[in-house]
Amino acid sequence: MSSALTRDALEAFWMPFTANRQFKNQPRLLARAEGMHYWTPDGRKVLDGCAGLWCVNAGHGRKEITAAVAEQMATLDYAPAFQMGHPVGFELANRLVKLMPGDLDHVFFTNSGSESVDTALKIAVGYHRLTGNASRQRLIGREKGYHGVGFGGISVGGLAGNRKYFDSMLLNTDHLRHTLDLEHNAFTRGLPEWGAHLADDLERLVTLHDASTIAAVIVEPMAGSAGVILPPKGYLQKLRAICDKYGILLIFDEVITGFGRLGTPFGAQYFDVMPDIITTAKGLTNGAIPMGAVFVRKQLYDAFMQGPDGIEFFHGYTYSAHPAACAAGLATQEIYEREGLLTRGAELSKAFEDAVHSLRSAPNVIDVRNLGLVAGIELQSRPGAPIGARGYEALVKCFEKGILIRTTGDTIALSPPLIISTAQIDELVTRLGEVLKTIA
Ligand code: PMP
C-alpha cells in the first residue's frame, strides 16, 4: 500500500461516491498540494488534471488565501448571519455581484453546491407564491443533469445513479431531454451545431403540465458531472425564449462553469443568456473552504422585500456567510482579478482544444468534447463489463502515471486549474494518451 495508513485505519471513514472496499484494496492518497500538483504520502508528484474536483481554479496552496483565513479566524472566528451581520460577509457579497451579468445583484450564501441548488429551487417557488402564482410549483430539470445530492437536487437531476435508490422524492418535477448526441455531434470542437431544437422539449412539458404549474427550469449551461455535455449552438437562447413566453424562471447551475472555467466569469456571459438565478460553489473559494452562493435578479429579491421591512425568507444555514469562508472568497477573488484567471481560459482554449482532440485516434475513444478549459473524452464501454469499468481503469492507471483525472462512467473529464501552462496541457494530454494505449 502506497501510504503510511494501515488497512484498518481506512475503515471508519465512509467515503462519498466511493466503493469503499474497492478503495481499501487500492488506496489512492493525496497528502500535499502546491500549484498544479499534488503529492502522495510517499512523495510521488501528480499533475492535477481536474482542479481537485473542478474547484481549485487558482491552483493549490495559495498563500494569500491561507493568510486571509488565518487572520479572519483570529479576528472573528464565527458570527451568525441570522438577524446579525459581519463586515466580511457584506464585503464579499458586494464584490461578487459586480462579476455578475445584468441585474443578478443579490446573493444568498450557502456551504456547497447542493445547498445552493436547493436554495435556488425554494427561491423560485417562493417567488411565484409571493407574486400571486402559487400554483407554479413544478420544477423542471434535464436528463443527465447533476445538481448535487439534496432531495431537491436529485429530484431535478437526471443521473440514474443518483436517483435509483431515492427516486424522485420531490413531487412535481419533470425533465427535458439531454443534448448528448454522438450520431450528429461526435468530435465537435467547441459547441455542437446540431441540436438547438432540443430546447423545444420544454414546449412539450408545457403542453403536458400547463405553464401555470411550472415554477422554473434548472440546467447546467454545460453539464459537467454527466461527462461534459455541451449545449448545441442556440439551445440556451431558445430555452430562455420559451421560459419568457410562459413566465417560467430559468436557473443556471454554474457550480462548475462559474469562476472562469469557460473563459468568462460565468457561463451566462459565455453564452450571452441571462438566467434569473445562478447557483455557484467550488471556485468561489478556490475549493479551500466550503462555500456556495446563489445569485438572484432584482425582481426576485424585490418580491421578498415587499412592505417596509421585507418578508423573512425562512431559510438559511448556521454557516451561511461563515467569516472564514468569506475571507477565503475575498482572497480568491483578489487572485482571480490580479492574475486575470477568469478570462485566462479563453486564451488557452485553442491550445487545450488542439491537445485534447489529438486523443481522437487513441484506442476506444468514441468522442472528444471541449469548451474553455474543460474537456470530455468518452471511451467505448467495455463489452460485457459494467459501464464505467474502462473509465475506472483509466483513472487508476492515470494516477499511477502521475495525473489526476475525473471519470463519469466511461467518460474522462479534464478541467485543470486555470493557471495551467501550455507545456503542462501537453504533458497532461500526452500522459493520458499513453495510458489509453495500455487499456484493452
Ligand atoms: N451542481 C453542479 C452543477 C455540480 O457540478 C455539483 C458538484 N459537482 C453540485 C451541484 C453539487 O455541489 P456540492 O458537491 O458542493 O454539493
TrEMBL record:
Entries under InterPro entries matching the protein: Aminotrans_3, Aminotrans_3_PPA_site, PyrdxlP-dep_Trfase, PyrdxlP-dep_Trfase_major, PyrdxlP-dep_Trfase_small
Record keywords, A-Z: Aminotransferase, Pyridoxal phosphate, Transferase
Protein's UniProt keywords contain Transferase: yes
Pfam family membership, one: Aminotran_3
CDD domains referenced in this protein's UniProt entry, alphabetically: OAT_like
Record's keyword annotation contains Transferase: yes
Molecular function terms from GO: transaminase activity
Cofactors named for this entry: pyridoxal 5'-phosphate
Family: Belongs to the class-III pyridoxal-phosphate-dependent aminotransferase family.
Protein name (Swiss-Prot/TrEMBL): Aspartate aminotransferase family protein
